[in-house]
Design a protein that fits this description.
By secondary structure, this protein is an alpha+beta fold. It has one domain. About 30% of the residues lie in helices and about 30% in strands. A 4-stranded mixed sheet has the order 2-1-3-4, with no helix packed on it. It is elongated and about 45 Å long.
């Protein structure tokens, strides 16, 4: 079975417990076929961004602020 990569972008290195909570929330579990890549990007200000296959979930403060500014325009 091919390995799939779940990328989690955050402002700091996540602990194993935090990663496990995210995986559980997504209905996934860590396995030999799932590689979790925690990337650091302080530009997102707070929150996380998740990329998995064609799935993209942006829960960052930067994105929320962008949405607010867009709604004000």
């Amino acid at each position: 079975m091919p390995t799939k990569t779940l990328t989690i972008i955050s402002t700091y290195q996540l602990s194993e417990a935090e990663i496990k909570t995210i995986l559980t929330s997504l209905g996934l579990q860590k396995s030999a076929t799932l590689l979790v890549d925690n990337q650091i990007d302080k530009g997102i200000i707070a929150g996380i961004v998740i990329k998995y296959n064609d799935y993209y979930l942006d829960l960052s403060l930067k994105n929320k602020l962008r949405e607010i500014v867009g709604n004000l325009s």
